[in-house]
Amino acid sequence: GTEPSLPSFQQPPLSSGIHAGWSKPPPLSYIDNHAKEYAEFYEDFFKQWHYKMDILDKCEDPAGTAISGAALQFPSNSSYPAGTVCAKDFSKQSCFSTGESGSPLMVQSGDDSAFSIQGILSFVKGCDVFSFGTISTEKKNAQLNQQTENPSTYTKLSCYLPWIAEQYGMDYEQSEDPACLIGSGNPDDGDQPCRNTPSNLIELFTGEVECIFPFYYKGTKYDSCILFEEDGFVYPIFRCPTRNITSKIDGINSFGFLPMVDGYCPTDPTDPTSP
Predict the structure, then answer these.
(1) Which tens digits make up the pLDDT trace of 75-85?
(2) 179: which DSSP letter?
């Protein structure tokens, strides 16, 4: 008899899809400490959210800033492996955080057709801008502000259907998809100097300043940009110091609070190298 096989699946190129999933919500203590106005709506943080996504022709780092759209002087060129597909929230106002990995990118080939899974969220590069807190205690106003030009990267499911079929002793034939074989970006991009991406109006004027490594944060030494954790919540944004300060451990800058440089007074605010 013939061996069992999976039905052929050929997904036509699509320009948009839906991301569906749950991020790990901040602990209630974090909400109380930073934006207590959200506390009465805390249960909503556990609901499934759906985001309209623009699917990219290829995975690549942004060429402009999320703040103004201006071209970056030193754009990165991260390496994206073969077998991936990338997408961005169409509003550029969402960036996924801890607990979101594995969420599906769903697509629909026609208005009346069922949704199918194009990819499974693999990794993200974080927000360009992230702020969460009380704006006015008198008016009981709080704000969550997220902006990013970074793509979210998904494992492209169709690339792995032959392997899935093999695990069950089945056959699967598909036409060759270059995205399953060829990655994008520069594998050696990590050797380039690490710089900040402007995330506020002041940084638009100071430019893309090179990070200062190594540095200490709360007594731990770091040699690369890090994700900060506060009150049990991991901020979805990578940060590095770009100014020297007088607090040091063995001659190395030592920071004790978020977001490191805020609260310190530079000698010359217009000079990005000013201590």
Answers:
(1) 999 999 999 99
(2) G
